[in-house]
Specification:
Elements: H1 3-15, H2 29-40, H3 44-52, E1 65-66, E2 71-72, H4 78-92, E3 96-101, H5 128-143, E4 149-153, H6 158-167, E5 179-183, E6 186-188, E7 190-191, E8 206-208, H7 214-220, H8 223-229, E9 234-239, H9 250-259, E10 263-269, E11 279-283, E12 286-290, H10 297-301, E13 313-322, H11 323-331, E14 337-341, E15 345-346, E16 352-353, E17 360-364, E18 378-381, H12 384-387, H13 402-412
Parallel strand pairs: 2-18, 3-4, 3-9, 4-5, 10-18
Antiparallel strand pairs: 1-11, 6-8, 7-17, 9-13, 10-13, 11-12, 14-17, 15-16
Helix pairs in contact: 4-9, 7-11
Length: 416
């Protein structure tokens, strides 16, 4: 074992993770170097803390949860044009950029490749990436600008994503001029004993750190710096799997500018009180999103004097941020949430194990956990059928699947 590997081995012993070098000697030089780099990038103190706190409840019983104020886009009346004109002016001045979170694979859809390359079954056979790029280009023409597009990939799909764009000539965009790719952060997966897992190749088994890692990834990869160079002041962040996402919304932008807030989000009304979605609220006087698992039945059913749900504004991952807010949020780590998953791994005897039940912890940060760091934010209610057609499940699930998204998309664009 070379000197560098010996030093890393000594460090691993301190954290009880020496097994990470179990297959080091059997690797070629390239894989050895990759493994050592992986290990050097791990924050072992963080991993230890996450493991120690696995069973701690972070919910504070003293938290005071109250409804949040919102604006309904289609009940703004004369204010609609007022906000729209403010937003249009900023867009025409080139102050808006779009970020698409596209780190996922299409596995759950039966698709082999990045989710953004998925063909949702339109007659045109356009991929999700092409649908989004067409929308952005059309909006850019409307305002006489090219809206810079930043695409967040993962270590797993970055190479395939870029190859896909190259094959399609970036859909008319120009790489490193108005379209940019950056990679989401990752964290190791650990077993029930706190040991970091190895994948089938003997490398550290990593998982994306959740959409809450977007802020940090934008800052660390120099994307916010590029945005500033382009004159960008506002950044829309949305997911690749929502084929109706409206990344360019002058009304939303105008509200944010007029109300002098650094975060403005879109919501849709819950389909029913028990719909499993996070909803906007205020927690201890600060903006927040509360998960459906944290809402009592009484809160979920509660209505105001107009008969509307008090906690009925669903968070749909359609958020607009001032660039200063992104930089601030990217510098301050968000709390991590834990998920217990089934994970294939390499055991100490060199066998690949495919478990039948959950065996590993994955840690993710949630984008909305940053909302509590701002004094106020704007929430704009939009219509589900116009802006929210996510593709998360296969057709056999019957909800948020290619079939339902296709129906909404065709109806909105009058393709039937």
């Amino acid at each position: 074992m070379d000197k560098k590997a010996e030093e890393i081995k000594a460090m691993l012993k301190k954290y009880g993770q020496e097994h990470l070098l179990n297959y080091y000697e059997k690797m070629d030089d390239v894989h050895k170097e990759t493994l050592l780099k992986q290990i050097e990038s791990i924050d072992f103190e963080l991993i230890n803390n996450l493991y120690r706190n696995l069973n701690k409840q972070h919910k504070n019983e003293e938290d005071k949860v109250t409804p949040i104020d919102f604006l309904d886009k289609y009940k703004l009346n004369e204010k609609y044009k007022y906000y729209e004109n403010i937003g249009k002016k900023a867009i025409k001045e080139g102050k808006l950029a779009a970020v698409t979170m596209a780190g996922g694979q299409g596995t759950r859809l039966g698709h082999d490749g990045p989710k953004g390359t998925f063909d949702m079954g339109l007659d045109s056979h356009k991929s999700l990436f092409e649908i989004l790029s067409d929308y952005l280009k059309e909006e850019g023409k409307k305002y006489g600008v090219v809206i810079p597009w930043f695409i967040m990939t993962s270590e797993e799909n970055n190479k395939d994503t870029i190859a896909f764009f190259e094959k399609h000539k970036y859909f008319g965009y120009q790489k490193n001029k108005n379209i940019f790719f950056f990679i989401q952060g990752e964290l190791p997966m650990i077993d029930t004993e706190g040991k970091i897992l190895l994948n089938e190749n003997g490398m550290v088994k990593l998982a994306a750190n959740g959409h809450g890692g977007t802020y940090e990834a934008l800052v660390k990869n120099g994307m916010t710096e590029k945005m500033r160079q382009l004159g960008v002041e506002w950044v829309f962040i949305g997911g690749v799997d929502n084929c109706l996402v409206k990344m360019v919304d002058p009304v939303l932008m105008g509200i944010a500018i007029d109300k002098d807030v650094t975060v403005a989000c879109k919501s849709v009304v819950k389909a029913n009180p028990q719909e499993k979605v996070g909803v906007f609220c205020k927690k201890n006087g600060k903006p927040n999103v509360i998960e459906y698992t944290e809402i009592t039945d009484e809160m979920a059913e509660a209505k105001n004097e107009d008969g509307e749900l008090l906690y009925g504004e669903s968070h749909i991952l359609c958020n607009l941020f001032n660039i200063e807010a992104i930089e601030r949020m990217g510098a301050n780590p968000l709390p991590y949430h834990v998920a217990f998953k089934k994970a294939k791994y390499l055991d100490k005897d060199g066998n690949i194990v495919e478990p039948d039940s959950p065996n590993a912890y994955k840690f993710e940060a949630f984008l909305f956990d940053s909302f509590g760091s701002v004094d106020d934010m704007a929430v704009l209610r939009v219509k589900r059928e116009e802006e929210f057609a996510p593709i998360k499940n296969s057709d056999d699930k019957g909800v948020d699947c290619p079939k339902t998204a296709r129906q909404l998309y065709k109806k909105f664009y009058h393709l039937d």
